[in-house]
Write a structure and sequence with these properties.
With 116 residues, the protein is mostly helical. It has helices at 3-23, 26-45, 48-52, 63-73, 78-90, 96-109. Helix 1 (3-23) packs antiparallel against helix 2, helix 1 crosses helix 4 (63-73) and helix 4 runs parallel beside helix 6.
């Protein structure tokens, strides 16, 4: 798959994951998480520039897309990812703000915790 195709699949998986917060479909949420991990690993294998392609998603309309992109792009774009996490945490969204806040808290304790 091209990088654009990987990003589109990443976006779709995040949106499906976002929808599971309404449907409470934990199985589907987990399936999409593993899709995201596989895409991250593929981008990682292609080098830092490929992984930086996730920066495009930090301004996406969907908060789940922004959240996951920020977490996965963090190792190669720390400042941008951290800003995005801070914005999500401040937005008072039920699920994504909590997750972003927890990631920021963990980064204070272990600065390289997202370096995977």
């Amino acid at each position: 798959m091209s990088i654009d195709e990987l990003l589109k699949r990443f976006e779709d998986a995040c949106i499906e994951q976002y929808d599971t917060y309404v449907t409470d479909d934990t199985k589907k949420r987990n399936e999409n998480f593993w899709i995201l991990v596989a895409i991250k690993e593929e981008l990682k294998a292609r080098g830092p520039d490929a992984r930086r392609a996730l920066l495009r998603l930090l301004s996406h309309d969907n908060p789940q897309v922004r959240l996951q992109a920020a977490k996965f792009v963090y190792p190669v774009a720390r400042d941008e990812a951290k800003r995005c996490l801070q914005e999500i945490a401040a937005a008072n969204l039920p699920d994504q703000s909590l997750s972003a806040g927890m990631a920021l808290y963990r980064l204070e304790e272990v600065p390289d915790c997202l370096d995977h």
